[in-house]
Amino acid sequence: RPGDRRTEILIGKPPMRTPSLPAASAIVLAGGLLAGTLPGLSRAGSDPAPQPTLAAPLSAVAALGKQMFFDPHLSASGQMSCAFCHDPANHYGPPARVSAAVISGGPDMNRPGLRAVPTLTYKFATPPFSIGPTSPESEAAETTPMQEAENGARPEDALRTAGAQLLARPGAPKAKTRAAGGNIVARGGLFWDGRAADLQDQSLGPLLSPFEMANASLADLAATIRAGYGKELGQLFGAQILKDDRMTVDEAAFAIARFEIEDVSFHPFSSKYDAYLAGRAQLSPQEAVGLRLFNDPNKGNCAACHLDTPSADDKPPMFTDFEFEALGVPRNPQIPANRNPAYHDLGLCGPLRDDAAARQPENCGLFKTPTLRNVATRKAFFHNGIYSNLAQVVRFYARRAADPAAIYPRGPGGKVDIFNDLPRKYWGNIDRIDAPFDRHPGDPPALSDAEIADIVAFLKTLTDGWMPAG
Question: Residue 22's CB: how many other CB atoms inside 10 A?
Answer without folding.
Answer: 15
